[in-house]
Design a protein that fits this description.
The chain is built from 5 helices and 12 strands. The chain is an alpha/beta fold. The chain has a 6-stranded mixed sheet with strand order 1-2-4-6-8-10, with no helix packed on it. It has a 6-stranded parallel sheet with strand order 3-5-7-9-11-12, with no helix packed on it. The longest helix is centred in the C-terminal third of the chain and has 20 residues. The protein is elongated. The N and C termini lie far apart (99 Å).
Length: 266
């Protein structure tokens, strides 16, 4: 109940606070995305920024606004447009964004490691069917409002971050057909095995059990270093001095009265 109340308050804040989330930033966000991506189909080129009427960006293809008469972006639906390039860092200027769909394009490169700081209010993130590579950012676990996370059919490697157990709002999760390995976090084990298929290194429910860890004992090589000349001389001198003192001054070493009888004086 507390979480639902918190989310409702967030929704009201984002939808009613133009002072905190300026519309100029959102316009700049779209302009930067348009300029940073290859657009063979010309969809993004159809975005015309010469119109200065309220809410004009809300009529752009793939753009959904909080209000039709206000240039404040709610979500971007840019799936299946043939877009090419890396993850658009300009999305940080879409300050009130809650949904992002870049699926079925030709994006490549890493997913930003600070993605939760770039888009902290996302409830839906779909990056499926691209060529994103590198690790899944651990930072995604900070997206506490995230309900949908689709990363399937990319080239992501490494482990599913164990911190994903913090994503308690998730209702949809898919990482099939990547290069992932390691155990599946406990919170995600209720999803179908098909949502993890195509990752030969993944293990744990709902897939096969992870193999037991084996500790291999390796011989430790001990290197014996030769004593140098100075060390050898020091040892020899110490031995001679000790022998002389013990021989001529036995009373310094023999403290027992019984043993004194066996000490031979010369």
């Amino acid at each position: 109940m507390a979480d639902n109340t918190k989310f409702l308050l967030l929704f009201l804040l984002l939808s009613s606070s133009p002072l905190c989330f300026g519309t100029e930033q959102d316009i700049w966000c779209l302009m930067s995305i348009q300029g940073s991506l290859a657009d063979p189909g010309g969809v993004l080129r159809s975005w015309n920024f010469e119109n200065e009427t309220n809410g004009y960006i809300c009529r752009f293809t793939g753009v959904e606004c909080w209000h039709l008469e206000e240039n404040k972006i709610l979500s971007l639906r840019l799936g299946n447009l043939g877009l090419q390039g890396q993850f658009p860092v300009a999305l940080q200027n879409c300050s009130s964004l809650t949904g992002l769909d870049l699926s079925n394009n030709n994006f490549s490169g890493p997913i930003p490691q600070d993605i939760s700081q770039v888009m902290p209010y996302l409830t839906s993130l779909d990056l499926s069917y691209n060529s994103f590579s590198g690790s899944i950012p651990q930072n995604i676990s900070n997206m506490t409002y995230l309900n949908i996370l689709n990363l399937q059919h990319n080239q992501l490697s490494g482990q599913i971050p164990p911190q994903f157990t913090l994503l308690t709002r998730l209702t949809a999760f898919n990482v099939a057909d990547n290069l992932l390995s390691g155990p599946i976090p406990s919170l995600l084990q209720n999803y179908s095995a098909s949502n993890f298929a195509g990752n030969q290194g993944l293990c744990g429910s709902p897939l096969d059990d992870c193999p037991p860890s084996r500790r291999r004992w390796r011989p430790v090589k001990i290197k014996l270093h030769r004593l140098n000349d100075q060390s050898s001389i020091g040892v020899a001198v110490g031995f001679v001095v000790g022998f002389v003192v013990a021989f001529y001054f036995p009373h310094c070493f023999v403290c027992s009265e019984r043993l004194r009888a066996y000490v031979v004086r010369i």
